[in-house]
TrEMBL record:
<comment type="similarity">
    <text>Belongs to the sulfotransferase 1 family.</text>
</comment>
<dbReference type="Pfam" id="PF00685">
    <property type="entry name" value="Sulfotransfer_1"/>
</dbReference>
<dbReference type="InterPro" id="IPR000863">
    <property type="entry name" value="Sulfotransferase_dom"/>
</dbReference>
<feature type="domain" description="Sulfotransferase">
    <location>
        <begin position="34"/>
        <end position="283"/>
    </location>
</feature>
<protein>
    <submittedName>
        <fullName>Sulfotransferase</fullName>
    </submittedName>
</protein>
<dbReference type="GO" id="GO:0008146">
    <property type="term" value="F:sulfotransferase activity"/>
</dbReference>
<dbReference type="InterPro" id="IPR027417">
    <property type="entry name" value="P-loop_NTPase"/>
</dbReference>
<keyword id="KW-0808">Transferase</keyword>
Length: 311
């Protein structure tokens, strides 16, 4: 179990993470600039949505921001390190990139701002299943056959989503990577001044308020007249309509293309599938892995309520 202590001291990388998708060593060679923005998540937690939000804030609501080109997943094994690092080095705007690493496998620089996106694990699995089961032959070839892969390949997705959920829960993120490590390590550094945690539920409940919160954290001043445009471009409907600009590689790795990658954007699709016992198992494991405060936040997007003091 990886734990990052909340000491207020700088966070240090203590391990590397390698698998069919990830090579964390690229962060050792990445040269940070003042103002870099790192968007982090376990995956399927609003990462692409956050990239669109940041792109709109950085480029002042421009309609033609191709976040799929401008904001790479740095620790993905493909394309090779040199190609990605050179492309980022050539960027002259304020850079924003993404990671799916836990904190202890990442370089956390005081020069950068870190936005961590989180979502209830059950919603993550339902989105992940859509991502996995619609992956085409090109996706499997790129992930499994590219030289440098560590560990077993990604198998085809189980078509039974409840069984898929149970495998993911029992094997902590299988066939991808640890969910609990990812959430736990970011939760433990939430008080760092250059870290902001954002919950998918909060984006759904109050997108205008969350956008202003994110802009304030990133020190981006937005003219009041620009907010309606930025909000429109950050809506799920706009992203679905312009999916090739948002989805990784324009959606070429999924049957149905970018429209498949930008799927429903809804929560709670597991309610009619998982049993009471299934949900109890998940919730008990969340508390055991994360503690009550973090598990509550992960499930709801709400902070732990203050205890009631008896008079």
């Amino acid at each position: 179990m990886s734990v990052i202590e909340r000491t207020g001291t700088p966070v240090r990388k203590v391990r590397e993470l390698h698998n069919h998708h990830i090579d964390s060593t690229i962060w050792n060679d990445f040269v940070f600039r003042d103002g870099d923005i790192v968007i982090a998540s376990y995956g399927k937690s609003g990462t692409t949505w956050m990239q669109q939000i940041v792109g709109q804030l950085v480029f002042d609501g421009a309609p033609d921001v191709n976040v799929n080109e401008l904001s790479p997943w740095l620790d993905l094994r493909i394309p090779e390190k040199a190609t990605k690092l050179a492309a980022l080095d050539a960027q002259t705007h304020r850079r924003f990139l993404k990671t799916h690493l836990p904190v202890d496998a990442l370089v956390v620089s005081p020069k950068a701002k870190y936005l961590y996106c989180a979502r209830d694990g059950r919603d993550v699995v339902w989105s992940l299943h859509n991502h996995h089961i619609n992956a085409n032959e090109e996706w499997f070839a790129a992930i499994n056959d590219t030289p440098g892969r560590v560990g077993p390949p990604v198998p085809p997705a189980d078509p039974d989503i409840r069984r898929y959920f149970h495998t993911w829960l029992a094997e902590d993120g299988a066939p991808f990577w640890s969910f609990w490590d990812n959430v736990r390590t970011w939760w433990h550094i939430r008080d760092q001044p250059n870290v902001l945690l954002v919950h998918y539920n909060a984006l759904k409940r109050d997108l205008p308020g969350q956008l202003r919160r994110i802009a304030h954290f990133l020190d981006i001043a937005v003219e009041e007249s620009q907010w309606p445009t930025i909000l429109e471009h950050c809506s799920f409907e706009w992203m679905k309509t312009h999916a090739p600009r948002v989805a990784p590689l324009g959606g070429v790795f999924w049957d149905g293309g970018a429209q498949t990658f930008i799927h429903k954007g809804t929560n709670g699709r597991w309610h009619d599938v998982l049993t009471e016992a299934d949900n109890r198992e998940y919730e008990q494991q969340a508390i055991a892995e994360l503690g009550e405060a973090c598990a509550h936040w992960l499930a709801t997007g709400e902070d732990e309520p203050e205890p009631v003091t008896q008079a």
